Structure formats: C-alpha cells, structure tokens
Amino acid sequence: MQELAGKVAVVTGAASGIGKALAERFAAEGMHVALADVEAAPLAAVADALRAAGAEVEAAVLDVRNASALEELASKCTARFGGAHVLCNNAGVANGGPTWELTVEDWDWVVGVNLTGVVNGIRAFVPGMIASGEPGHVVNTASVAGLTCAPFMSPYNATKHAVVALSETLRADLATVAAKIGVTVLCPGWVQTRIHESSRNKPGFEAGQEDDDSALGPLREFLRAKIEGGLAPREVAEQVLAAIRANRFWVRTHPDMEPQIAGRCEAVAAGKAPPLLVPTDLT
Ligand code: NAI
Fold this sequence. Notes:
globular, binds 1,4-dihydronicotinamide adenine dinucleotide
C-alpha cells in the first residue's frame, strides 16, 4: 500500500505503548483511525488528542477476546468510513513463571488476548477488506518471543510463535485468493511500554493490588530494566509504516537479537535441539 492518506487504520491495544504510537503515526499520515482498547480512560485520552490534531477517530472500549465486539467495530467502520484498509492486531499481554506453576487462568488469559484476539480481529475485518477489492494490509504484533524461547515465558512464547504461524498462513491464504492485502508480522525486542505491567488488565485484578508475576523472581527486575531502556514506540511505528509501504513481511526491530533467532533456526535445520537461552542472552 503506497497511498495511506484518507484510508482507514484499525489498531487494537491503542491506548498505550506500540498501539498508541501506531495510531499517532497513522493519523499523522492523514488516515482515519479506529482504535480499540480494554482501558477506557487512556483510550479516550489518545482519541481526544488525535481528534484535536484533526484526525477522524472511532474509539471502542472492548476486549479483543470478545469476537462480537470486534465485529461490531468492523460494522461501525463500514458505516462511518466505508470499511478498513490497515488492520493492526496489536493488543497483547505478558506473564511469567515456570511452565508447570502457571495456572489455567494464566494460560487462558494470555492465549485469549495474544492469540484468539488476533484471530478475532482477522475474522471481523479481513472479509470486508477482501470484498472491497481495495489494497489493504494486516499487521499482527508478535515479538522476538515468536522466534525464540526464553525461560519462564511459556504462554507468551507459545502465543507469539502462534502469531508468527498465523501471519505466515494468512499471507499464504490471501495469495491463494489473489487478494490485494499484504501481511506484516511485527517482532520487536524491548520497547518502552507498559507490557511489564500487563496484569493491570488481567480479569480479577484490582487497582492497587501487587501484580502476580512474583514467580519471575529476579527476572522480573531484569525485564523491567530492559523494557524501560528499550526502543521508543514511535520508532517501532515508523518501521511498521515503512513495511506497509514496502509490503514487507518481517519487522524485526533489534539487530542485536538476530543471533538468537539465527541460532534457533540453524539448530532446527540441522535437527539439533535449539540452544538453551538464559535471560541474560536476551541482550
Ligand atoms: P502496553 O501494555 O503498553 O500496551 C498494550 C495495550 O493493550 C494496552 O493499552 C492494554 O490496555 C491493551 N490490552 C490489554 N489487554 C487487552 C484486551 N484484552 N483487549 C483489548 N486491549 C487490551 O504494551 P505494548 O508493549 O505496547 O504491547 C503491544 C504489543 O507489543 C503486545 O502484543 C506485546 O506483546 C507486543 N510486544 C511488546 C514488546 C515490548 O518490549 N514492549 C516486545 C515485543 C512485543
């Protein structure tokens, strides 16, 4: 997709971090934006700021685990803007701990948001994007964790690997029906966002409650420091915009993490067990 001005971008998880930066970047490009997030007040603040800057904004407080809520947003986009052109399935959450200690609720939450949420976005918007016959693009936010397997992050790693597989398959499906819709899978390393505070959105979590990632132990502080020292979200958004224009599949933001990705791929190709990562390998 080359021409973005006047087109419509949908972003989930738009109230914070990478999603907020994507919304701002698309609006700056002259796109109309449809923003979704489970957090009402931060979403309203983002929507108000973009409207004040002159953008047309549709904002929906919804949980991406709810398929019908995303279908409703798709209907609103059709009624208000005539459809959607760029779909960013970006909402995501993280938790951690030894695989055998995480509860069924921990698993359901991360699988529901990180994987089913992406499926729900695709099911709600892609049929209309295909039917319009116009150029379009789907951006699914995975992670470097979709290409490597660091310890204590089973649900996150499993769902992000699934988002990479889903994106590859979607690309093949769209090619099979000759749709003019590109696919990008966004695999960032550390980015300065609130991902390490994900438990604020976990069902049953109450404001002021200590988050429940204590099983991470020392890893918790390590992750916090890495995220706080990470890439600015606006730089990630810039790379996504370039990938949409170039119809590029991968956006991998951290060249220093490429050796871990290559090491795993080489071991798979050679029929060897992938190298064991320890947290400090994730430089
Ligand atoms: P963030 O926590 O700042 O933003 C995530 C947004 O998703 C928040 O606004 C949150 O309210 C929303 N959200 C959470 N659960 C939701 C639900 N059920 N329905 C709708 N919205 C929901 O974190 P960040 O980093 O901006 O996360 C965006 C994506 O980037 C996620 O998929 C994350 O896994 C991915 N990512 C982040 C990295 C980082 O270092 N920050 C690295 C690699 C990937």
